């Protein structure tokens, strides 16, 4: 009997409906927008403390005892599963080439790549398109969204948040009761291990790690939304433009 929780699709749908109702369709603003900074900083500090005391030590041990080829293969498996969402969002954004590229990746890596453990598709010219629902909503007109640092989940915006729930639910939807919670834990630890170097650079170089994380998130999202080719005048705008009207956004 499939006992997979059914709450996440419902939560995601509720968020999507809320975002659709609150979307601002005037202009194309992707600049840093953080009106809930007080809450977000507290959430970041609590999450960072737990990360440093629990997750980072576990990730370091995991990285030390896990061969690079195995760590990479585990990441490939989870990425292969989530490529389903990327393919669907490519089509939803009106980019069939992107959708078919990801679909081809799934077919090749699942078969030739032995369940996605080996990334055979990339050397064959089928690169991961990295599309998600947040980018789809941006293409549909939701261009400006409030930043929120979700405890223990990380940086996101109200527009992008449903993507996190969807990506978490996809493996459970595919494998049902056969998908044990320990696999989710493995996914988290493996991902954190791959980000150890990046977080170390952030901590060593950033005067304000919270602001660095937030601003980098917005720039990264803009880069993805424009498929790696954002308008030059927008891409080089200064961070932290707060000239927004609260009652026009979400």
Explain what this protein looks like in three dimensions.
The chain starts with 6 loop residues before the first helix and ends in a 15-residue tail after the last helix. Helices cover 61% and strands 3% of the residues. The N terminus and C terminus are likely disordered. Helix 2 packs across helix 7 and helix 3 runs antiparallel to helix 4. With 250 residues, the protein is mainly alpha-helical. The chain has a two-stranded antiparallel ribbon. It has ten helices and two strands, in the order H-H-H-H-H-E-E-H-H-H-H-H. Strand 1 and strand 2 form a beta hairpin. The longest helix is centred in the first third of the chain and has 29 residues. The protein is globular.
Helix share, percent: 55-70%
**Termini separation:** 40 Å
Count of helices?
A: 10
The largest β sheet comes out as:
2 strands, antiparallel
Counting DSSP E segments of at least 2 residues, the number of strands comes to 2
């Amino acid at each position: 009997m499939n006992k997979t929780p059914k709450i996440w699709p419902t939560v995601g749908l509720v968020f999507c409906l809320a975002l659709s109702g609150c979307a601002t369709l005037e202009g194309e603003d992707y600049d840093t927008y953080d009106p809930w900074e007080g809450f977000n900083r507290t959430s970041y500090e609590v999450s960072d403390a737990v990360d440093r005391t629990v997750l980072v030590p576990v990730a370091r041990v995991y990285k030390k005892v896990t061969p690079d080829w195995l760590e990479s293969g585990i990441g490939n498996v989870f990425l292969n599963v989530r490529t389903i969402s990327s393919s669907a969002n490519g089509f939803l954004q009106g980019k069939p080439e992107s959708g078919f590229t990801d679909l081809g990746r799934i077919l090749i890596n699942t078969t030739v790549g032995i369940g996605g453990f080996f990334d055979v598709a990339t050397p064959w010219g089928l690169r991961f398109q990295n599309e998600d629902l947040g980018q789809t909503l941006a293409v549909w007109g939701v261009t400006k969204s409030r930043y929120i640092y979700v405890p223990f989940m990380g940086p996101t915006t109200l527009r992008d948040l449903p993507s996190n729930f969807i990506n978490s639910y996809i493996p459970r939807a595919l494998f049902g009761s056969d998908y044990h919670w320990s696999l989710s834990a493995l996914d988290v630890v493996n991902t954190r291990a791959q980000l150890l170097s990046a977080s170390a650079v952030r901590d060593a170089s950033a005067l304000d790690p919270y602001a660095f994380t937030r601003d980098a998130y917005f720039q990264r999202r803009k880069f993805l939304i424009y498929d790696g080719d954002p308008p030059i005048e927008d891409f080089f705008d200064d961070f932290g433009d707060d000239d927004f009207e609260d009652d026009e956004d979400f």
